[in-house]
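Dear colleagues,

As part of the handover before I leave the project, I'm documenting each prediction I ran so the next person doesn't have to rerun anything. This entry is a single chain, and its sequence is reproduced below.
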Amino acid sequence: MSSPPTVVDDDGSGLASFRRNIWWGLAGTVACVLGFAVGDWLLDPDVPAGLRALTGLSTAATIVACGVLLARRIRDEAPSTGWLVTAGGAATVAAAVPLALGEFGIWSIAPAATISVLVMFLPSRRAWLVLGVTLVLLPAVGLLTALGMDEPHLGHAAWMPALMVVAFGPAMLGMLRGWQVAARLDDARRLAGQLAVADERLRFAADLHDIQGHHLQVIALKSELAARLAEADPARAAATMREVQQLAGDALRETRSLVQGYRRTTLDAEIANASKVLTAAGVEVLADVDADLAASLPQGPRSLLGLVVREATTNLLRHSRATRAAMVLVPDGAGARLLIDNDGVRPAELDGGQVGLDGGPAGLGSGSAGGGDGTGLVSLAERLDAVGGHLSWTSEGDRFVVTATVTG
């Protein structure tokens, strides 16, 4: 049958205990059936002592070999040749002696149990095929032997081997299948946990990128300006560096809040933060937001609009030379429409209409498909589409407009 995932240690899921229970169930079934069935016959004084000893030893060897093979199968390990030979040889002897003495009720138990264990190492279809052949072969052997001995009860010689195959085979394969399903479910549970961790790491990375992107871009611009003013206007350079110091402090506080899990993306907070950062960068900002409309939006769409504001502001600072920007939130059917407009498109970057996805005017920036970091407008467009919204960006003249719509 198909191999289950290997599980070595118990991580709290109880799978290792379940594996042990499966082994005890399978090995215990083989041991108990063989022990009880053959035990009385081994104590029969009418049977020669040598044959009883040979049968007892071969039966014990069959039980041990089947137990070892079951353990290897459940651990998804290949069977060793030595144990395969031991199991096959012992089962053959344990069957041949009673069969030669006309004990048609017990001779087939050892081979039926051993074959049922061995087929567990085969693919599912082949395993059932071998069991089908065994279901025909063992009764045929019993029937032919009974005919040769002039046994009057031929039916007993035929149906007992068939019963043993039917009893052992499906039970063995069924318990193995239960183990495989449990192991795969545990793998799926573990994978789901790993994916959740990876998703949270990506979310954290995106939030950290956006926080640092806002502030570091302004810090870079302000630092460059201060360096240029250091000799010509020391007082203004000092004032600019104080602004840099304040921005660095804001970035540090927001980063700490993010790490501690206190920071949440909201539309109102992002617009307020964007206005503050843009103003510090010398951009005149007009924010016209319907507070009641923003509050009426569900948390998910409102959070996505906040991310759009954050990304558009970062790209504006990084890639444009805007002097004015506007952020407007208006009703749009059953939802809302957010427009972020700036006048900072560089003429050399215009393509005459819809902005290209491989880089270009302000507003796309490193978060585009060309940038490849997966945190920009292209990524946000996909997330908005997934919740029934839409995100687009266009340029006309020196103006660049980002438009996001969400449903209420």
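Confidence is low (pLDDT under 50) at residues 1-10, 348-375. Residues 15-193 form one domain.

All the best with the project,
I.
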